[in-house]
Amino acid sequence: MIEKALHGGKAYWALIVVILGVIGVGVATWFYQYHNGLTVTGLNRDVSWGLYIGQLTFFVGVAASAVMLVLPYYLHDYKAFGKMTVLGEFVAIASVIMCVLFVFVDLGKPMRITNVFLHPNPISMMFWDTIVLSGYMLLNILISRVALDAEKKGIAPPKWIKPFIILSIPWAVSIHTVTAFLYAGLVARPFWMTAVMAPRFLASAFAAGPALLMIFALIIRKFTKFDPGEKAINRLSIIITYSMAINVFLILMEVFTAAYSGMPEHLDHFKFLYTGITDANGVTHTQMVPWMWASSILALVSLFILFVPKLRKNHGLLFMACAAVFISLWIDKGFGLMIAGFTPTPTHQIAYYMPTLPEWLIMFGIFGIGAFIITTLYKVALTMRGAVK
Amino acid sequence: MTVDRRKFVKVAGLGMIALAAKPAAELFGKDIEHVPAGTAHKLDVDHPKTAKRWAMVIDTRKCRENPDCDACINACHDVHNVPHFEEKDEIKWIWKESYHHAFSGDDNEYMPHDILHSNVLLLCNHCDDPPCVKVCPPKATFQREDGIVMMDWHRCIGCRYCIAACPYGSRSFNWRDPREGLENKNPNFPTREKGVVEKCTFCDSRLARGQLPACVEVCPHHALTFGDIDDPNSEVREILEQNNTIRRKPSLGTKPQVFYIV
Question: Residue A349: its chain B contacts at CB < 8 A?
């Protein structure tokens, strides 16, 4: 089946070459980082996790969001998602692989990664995150493979796959819940120590993931004969709308709790993000403020487009709304969440962190690997369905 | 266990070989530094200092009287080959922080001026319930029976989850090769590699040889007291009974074992 990725037109190969180029730059930069140490990143003694772990968090969410198609399609027999579901599963596979790579490039001693399995610590949430993430990847590979195989033969998927599909639904919820537990259980980080962390992660995931899928669906619809169907597009955009609304609601809950109680150790993280914060020496730090307001404005704009049916049904506007959702949530969760967790520091100092060029290049390299997986898998599925040659 | 270890050290002088051949946990987790051949007899390896629960009391009054004294910091960092880098790549095992930051939230602007504007010594608290140990994926950081929170630098994968989990900022990561930041290496203590986390060990290797922690031993003002908090007759217990002491962030439930007399 996979051989279908090896035959394609000029545009397909041009895309592959560009993606491979981005991957190549990322890999070369990683070797540079490996040789010189993580000092080449912007990370420091105070902000010790940044862009890489932010991406892990964000893409675990994108991976989990496949459940927003799987659940209606398989559990409620919502047929309109028939063509989209396997595309969602492919995004999930690519995302989990990216997550593993983001952990890998963040390690100080990547060659010792097997120590996690040789000396596992079951009290560590990282241990459980490894288990649920790898399990989720295997489930999605199995399910999408069997579904495509059946589709190719023109028969219904075998019955034995059903329990695996059902299992993948709570499993998807578990990967993002456990990822939230990585942070929410830390007594050292009041910004993260909130019971709303896992629900908020799920809400933002169920907005960002489907938004990305929608972007992919609209693009391939434009350039191929593939059509996910108007009904599926509508339903998916409603899923994005409400997930995004719930996410914004949960963020506002966090803001209220911190602001009304006025507890400095909670409130100061929000000040650092949204208003800037003045340190003991009278210096005001505002490096995160433009990012977070960009995220907030994009969130509001996207919600406006998504909530008005007339606007939402215009595919051009829908595309823009989905892009706004994705970028807004990326800033909030893939960037701000991590940095604000570390700032102010446990000694209540304001640390500085901005990713360096090597960090961005390595991040884009891993995005490239994700794009490569999605492109080739989509190519296989679309060729099989006769949408492309 | 203990006998094996003693025999091993005696037979040794072969510390060098041991360093290469023995698993890291035995080297750092228990006691052996690579002692140069022939000097082992000078160290009291037969009488290691032991305790049920090690703890430290820092008399900040004495530190305030001598604000320019850095004896403990220099001794610790020299003995343990802690490199000197500027802030971004900084590594520190014991250091000074302003009172406001050391006890953030517990200070107030009306307290005695000399206290509010003084510096306080910070180091790993060797918590009784250490959050760093809980989160470490490969158990590279662990707690000994005598309470010391230890690290296996040969097992650490450099994920820095322990740094995220420590509420005291006590842990440092080797962002770059630490050997580049060392002018004079102490041959009796291992240097680290880039990519691993490190922190204060309560001088486990000195305790094993019957010595007090370097910071305690070197302090010219006797501001630091180290001992068994489980022993009612110990000096630390005596000081704790006679003085009002505070700990950093006690409300977090980590039970820090470094006490401060203000």
Answer: 101
The whole-number average pLDDT for the span B137-157 is: 97
Using DSSP bridges, classify how beta strands B119-123 and B141-143 pair: parallel, antiparallel or unpaired.
unpaired
- Tokens representing A73 are 């399609």
Burial A268-280 (b: 16+ CB within 10 A, else e): bbbbbbbeebeee
What single string gives the DSSP state of each residue in B214-230? HHHHH-TT--EEEEETT
Q: What is the ipTM of this complex?
A: 0.93
Name residues of chain A where pLDDT drops below 50.
Answer: none
Q: What phi and psi, each to the nearest 5 degrees, are found at residue B149?
A: -90, 115
Separation of alpha carbons A308 and A324, rounded Å: 15
A261: number of Cβ within 10 Å: 10
Residue B19 has pLDDT above 50, yes or no: no
Contact criterion met (CB < 8 Å) for B137 and A116: yes
* End-to-end Cα distance, chain A: 14
- What's the rounded Cα separation, in Å, for the pair A64 and A88? 10
Beta strand pairing call for B94-98 and B119-123: antiparallel
Residue type at position B101: H
Say if CB B159 and CB B196 are below 8 A apart: no
Q: Say how far apart CA A365 and CA A94 lie, in whole Å.
A: 13
Q: HEC string of A158-224?
A: CCCHHHHHHHHHHHHHHHHHHHHHHHHCCCCCCCCCCCCHHHHHHHHHHHHHHHHHHHHHHHHHHHC
What number of other Cβ atoms are within 10 A of residue B212's Cβ? Answer: 17
| Helical spans, DSSP H, in chain B | 2-11, 15-21, 24, 60-65, 71-79, 99-102, 113-116, 131-135, 161-165, 204-208, 214-218, 235-242
Count of residues making up chain B? 262
Specify whether the CB–CB gap between B74 and B234 falls below 8 A: no
Q: Which residues in chain A have their CB less than 8 angstroms from residue B253's CB?
A: 187
Phi, psi of A306 (to 5 degrees): -70, -35
B96 neighbourhood in chain A, CB within 8 Å: none
The pLDDT tens digits for B45-69 are 778 999 999 999 999 999 999 999 9
Q: Look at B90 and A45 and tell me if their CB atoms are within 8 Å.
A: yes
Residue A91 Cα distances to A46, A83, A98, A185, A368, angstroms: 34, 14, 10, 29, 13
The answer to whether B132 and B178 are in contact (CB under 8 A) is no
Instruction: Return residues 257-296 of A near B (CB < 8 Å).
Output: 264-265, 280
Check B173 against A349: CB less than 8 A apart.
no
Contacts of A187 in chain B (CB under 8 A): 131, 165, 167, 252-254
Across-strand partners of B198? Answer: B172
**B87 contacts in chain A (CB < 8 Å):** 44-45
User: Is this prediction's pTM over 0.80?
Assistant: yes
Element (H, E) at A264: helix A264-274
Using the predicted structure, report yes or no on whether residue B3 has a pLDDT greater than 50.
no
- C-alpha distance from A343 to closest chain B C-alpha (Å): 11
> Could you tell me if residue B139 is left (phi over 0), alpha (psi between -120 and 50 degrees) or otherwise beta?
left
Determine the pLDDT at residue A45. 95
- Six token digits for residue B81: 């080959």
Chain B residue with CA closest to A45: the answer is B172
Separation in Å, CA B114 to CA B98, B111, B220: 11, 9, 21
Q: Do B254 and A106 touch (CB under 8 A)?
A: no
